[in-house]
Amino acid sequence: MDIQQWTAFLVGASFLLYIVIAIRSRANSTGEFYVAGGHVPPLANGMATAADWMSAASFISMAGLISFSGFDGSVYLMGWTGGYVLLALLLAPYLRKFGKFTVPDFIGDRYYSQLARIVAVICAIFVSFTYVAGQMRGVGLVFSRFLEVDITTGVVIGMCIVFVYAVLGGMKGITYTQVAQYCVLIFAFMVPAIFISLHVADWAIPQIGFGMGTPGQGSTILARLNGLHEELGFSSYTRGSGNTINLIAITFALMAGTAGLPHVIIRFYTVPRVRDARTSAGWALLLIAILYTTAPAVAVFARTNLLDTVYKEGQFQPHSSMPDWFNTWEGTGLIKFTDHNNDGLIQYVGEGAVDAEGLLLQNELIIDRDIMVLANPEIAGLPNWVIGLVAAGGLAAALSTAAGLLLVVSTSFSHDLLRKWLKPDISEKEELLAARIAAGVAVCFAGYLGIHPPGFVGEVVAFAFGLAAASFFPAILLGIFMKRMNSEGAIAGMIVGLLFTASYIIYFKFMHPELDSADHWWWGISPTGIGSVGMCFNFMVAGIVRSFTADPPQEVLEMVEQIRLPEKG
Amino acid sequence: MVKKSSESAHSEYWKKNLKLIGKLLFIWAFVSFGLSLAFADALHGVLFPLPGTPLGFWFAQQGSIFTFVILIWVYAWRMNRLDDEYFSEGDE
Fold it and tell me: How far apart are CA A503 and CA B33, in angstroms?
């Protein structure tokens, strides 16, 4: 079978599996629709959380991102895993004990305020839609590259699948499809990674392989890669760019943002007991770590393979000698070669690189980092079925995350807005119907965003994490660990954190992108890391406002006391 | 059913929890912000634990993640045991 047949077969088979699971796990009550009835075993929840969390960005883009940024890419690896430590130690067990359905539920009840609830709902919807747009783009990318259908058809197929299991099954359907999707995506990520590790390093475990020597050569892979980087004028692969404060700020913002993202938090409402929330966080991160520790190894192999292709034995290679994968991806526009000096050679160099006579060299090759994982099996010459598997894995990662996010949007409408605010006397049947309609509308809107992606998807990701870090994370944390934190303090903190973070990002990303460089940033902190500062402001303002306003009412104090204890109140 | 009922047992349980969280978060911060970022340059010459990985780089891209996994499991194990000590099983 050729690549396309294998891909069609594997993608089709995985989609069929998701639908069968969805039909078997339909939701019959709002409890099942919102939190799968609270009956999900810890390991299953860990798998579902891992699939929920690992998006098209983790599967498709992350290894490529690290491949092109070397050490500095570590902020994403640590930020997107270290957040689980905060989640497991500071949030998940207590939110499970609280035992309602959504994040705005907690904020609204704990701060006895409809305003706080509504601020939380708006943030939750905004953050989720921001994210969904990226997932649908991933679906479109995989379909158009591997199945040669156009992006619109690809997105519509993806929408139909999500529609079936999210609308029918709610959280219950999503949970068990995510379990299957985790298996598909981790298998699809690991198989090529192991092949490539064997190919490049002669080790089956990529986590070991990338730190060993190249077979037949004296130096280790990383030493050789650093050497190539130096020759070509790129900065060292294993060393940071030097702005440590900024790297710390970004890492911290991503960690707190991860812990504050509503689609991750609600997964911990689905387990039976408080202790299961702790254990399932352990499973989730263990299962995530398998991919997250493999990705940096894949990044090193991909980078080495790429440089070996365009720059062999100290010579730039002619464009005519490039392998098939190079030409295929050039056709999609994701690899761009411009022969500035018309010598037919591909000069791939960093800034300020010079040739033997000391003349400045101009870079002639631009590679979209998203293609590294998708092209890797071809670069390493792996069998066709592996390439098809990668396509199915990328789709599993994108669809599982999209479904989790759409559920947040749907519950925000039916539960937080309708039941808790606009129409408190709604019957359970009507609420369930409203949740299904909201999920359906959200799927269509997400599909629209996937077909007509706004040009700023990359920028808004900084937004999602920054806002979650500056609003949800401090509000929930204070709600649990600071008993006397009151409504006025929490709301003032959230508003200041949100406004500060949002204005900083809007200023540098949308109003004055030309100023978006270290010279103009405050304290040298980039918009991606500014959520850390916003979070500090949130804490400070909340503390100050609390100190001269009234204590929370007695029943809220008792509620906090109950949340802290694992036994039933 | 509470084994050691009363306010003081509850606050004792909470204090032990906070102490454990404090210790684990210290390790979390030291490994991620310290070894992996702030001290990474200083550790660049140390090739450990693999022959090709500078230690700071290894912590930033591998070691920190392993540490995070261990921290969560230690917390889950210690707290679940503490729950049994202070609250009888099966109550939730």
Answer: 27
